[in-house]
Amino acid sequence: MSKQIYTYTELAEATSLSTRTLRRLVDRGELAAPVRITEYRVGFLASDVEAFLDQLKKRVY
After folding, report:
1. How far is residue 27's CA from residue 42's CA, in Å, rounded to a whole number?
2. Would you say domain 5-58 falls under CATH 1.10.1660.10?
3. How many CB atoms lie within 10 A of CB 11?
4. Between the N and C ends of the chain, which has fewer C-beta atoms within 10 Å?
5. Kindly report the CA angle at 48 between 4 and 53, in degrees rounded to 5?
């Protein structure tokens, strides 16, 4: 991943999770809260996305 900030939609496409699931993960503290880009847009920092993806890889189901 080479971008600096990912939107909910971009992160959903990259992880195959729905945007609603991503919002739930943020609410539960499992995914870092997005940062405000503009008045009406938010996005996730690439470093937070990488940490989240690493965490997903370590989960055992």
Report:
1. 15
2. yes
3. 21
4. C
5. 105
